Input
Amino acid sequence: MRTTLPLAVAFITGLVFVITFFLNEESPLVGGVSKQLLDWLIIIGGFTLLLGVVSILRVSWQSVERRKEDWIYKLITILSVLVMAIPGLLPESWSSLFGRQEGTIYDWLFLNLQAPMMATMFATLAFYIASAAYRAFRARTAEATILLVTATLVMLWRVPMGEAFLNLFSEEIPGLINTYIMGGVNLAVQRGIIIGAALGAAAMSLRIILGIERTYMGKS
Amino acid sequence: MPESVFGQEGESLFRYDRINALVAVVVFSFAILLFTKWAKEGKPLFLRKIPGLEAIEEAVGRATEMGRPVLFIPGIAELDEIDTIAGISILGRVAQITAQYETPLYVPVRYPLVLAAGQEVVEQAYIKAGKPELYDKDIVRYVAGEQFSFTATVNGYMMRVRPATNIYMGAFFAESLLLAETGNAAGSIQIAGTARPEQLPFFIAACDYTLMGEELYAASAYLSHEPIMMGGLKGQDFMKILIIILIIIGIVLVLFDSAEIYLSWFEEN
Output
């Protein structure tokens, strides 16, 4: 039963989505089915959020309680979860600082702490790109040298100063890079990967719908 | 105009403009089922070696020798993404190996549904490996719901604990290089797999092995060594050959300027 029921659910749901793709979504019958499934997804998503909150609090609390290594970070995690969640969950009628609208504690914490921290994480990507590019572009082999030359040309083409520099030699160079490197070799390889991935995804979906693939449930 | 459950009167319930997709689905399904049947009957099927998957056991062995954990990230997308399902499938195999070697495993996730699925898969893997007593519910952990909060948590873990092996399998976005470069700086052996072409260069630059596109979806079948699963992969290969033939026909017809009708069969609707 533990295997049969999920398999049946996967089969029926998969089949419904495949069939509705080939039917007119304007019709109330098909549109209704899609809407129902979407509603279920939102409801299940809401319930599972609680699962995540419980998991993070339980794991962090265990570390704090047993004074495990780096327990101080876990304590900060617990405090952060509570400080963000509690004012956001309290009813707005109690105070203008509660709830999640503009001017609340939640809003202030999000705009002044969470958003800048996330932006900082994203901004560090520039440094990581530089270090990864340095390693990838070291001309140790013929392939790496081709990669280095190609990447240099593309980078020159992508920035106005570089384009001006290329124009010194010939005004046709930027157009040639666009046509042959980006629109030719690069696009052909990308399309090859995308076609392969799409077929792989479709084959895996079919294996799941037909119950051949059960590894995602921990079954062989 | 009167309306029924099938829509406005006179409107067709069936999308005739998608008949090309229906033909493709039927041919593809038939190919997969046919090859699966042949595989079941015991016909030998050749599969090329995928170095990234071959390296998983070796990488876990390295972690065992070093006495350090294995970090597995099944992507950062929700469970309704096929990439995540593929990642979870590979997690089962990795967990089985870590259970056999008694190597610590850490699986941070971004969505509660992935947490539930991951916990189930890892538990089953430990039972299958005959080490249920080693299973800990907290092997798979929900760490953060926001993309960069998740990345910061995992990067912090990598720099503090320095896992011997990092395995990234699933859907990754802007955080792919942040994770892979940090793992590289921490000295971990890294195996990645994603079907997103825009993230592949980052993984290739920073990881030791990278599964590209379809290899990610093929991994569960490849690792299972089960003929019934491998039949699906051969079905895929058949479709690829078919697509190559169709592309060549298209090129020839375009060269002779008579491809109008032919190309209309492949229009997306």
Observations:
- The mean pLDDT of chain A is 89.
- Chain A has two domains: 4-89, 127-217.
- The first helix of chain A runs from residue 4 to 21.
